[in-house]
Amino acid sequence: MKLLPDVERVLVDFLRAQPELQAELGDRIYTVLPTKPTFPAVRVGRWGGWAAISRPLVLDEGWCQVDTWGGTKAEASHLARLMRALIDQRLRASGAPVSAVRFGMFHDAPDQSYEPARPHWRFDVSLMLRPEAAPPPPVPRELVSPGPPNP
């Protein structure tokens, strides 16, 4: 059975693998922000979408919001712009099961849950996901032979 991939996991794994982001964020790219995060930090969350082709279930459009918090407004903006560029230029070529990428809103939204408000930028991205390739079925043990010895 082929499953459609988890869009949050696809984005988080891709972003964590980018050298430009590793230098600035390390592993601080999350699907759930820790209770006491170290900044800068990023959160990826799916907020909607639907099966673009549902019979058979072979194409899912996953809508995500990517939130970036920085020490400064410039840092948060830089991270958000960098992530959009990396997704645009590298995600489809990365081997991820992504057929298309579309960007939506890009917004400066200071996070008022912190005192003073924490610099925060966010953007929407939509990924068209195809099922991940199913691994080949295992070869029955009785069909595996050791073969002749190597000369």
Give a brief rundown of this model.
The protein is α+β, with helices and mostly antiparallel strands and 151 residues long. Helix content is 23%, strand content 33%.
Mean of all residue-level pLDDT scores: 90
As residue ranges, the low-confidence spans are none
Residues in β-strands, percent: 25-35%
Biggest sheet strand order reads 1-2-3-5-4
Q: First CA to last CA: what distance?
A: 42 Å
CATH architecture: 2-Layer Sandwich
Largest sheet: 5 strands, mixed
Rg, nearest Å: 20 Å
Number of folding domains?
1
Coarse structural class: alpha+beta
CATH class: Alpha Beta
Would you give the CATH topology? STM4215-like
**Element string (H = helix, E = strand):** HHEEEHEE
Work out the helix count.
3
Task: Tell me the helix content.
Answer: 10-25%
Outline: elongated
Strand elements, count: 5
Could you walk me through the main structural features you see in this protein, from its secondary elements to its overall organization?
There is one protein chain. This protein is of the alpha+beta class. The protein has one domain (7-31, 39-132): STM4215-like, CATH 3.30.2000. Helices cover 23% and strands 33% of the residues. It has three helices and five strands. It has helices at residues 7-16, 19-25, 73-90; strands at residues 29-30, 41-54, 57-69, 98-108, 120-129. Strands 1-2-3-5-4 form a five-stranded mixed β-sheet. A hairpin with a 2-residue loop joins strand 2 and strand 3. The termini are far apart.
Core attributes:
five-stranded mixed beta sheet; 3 helices
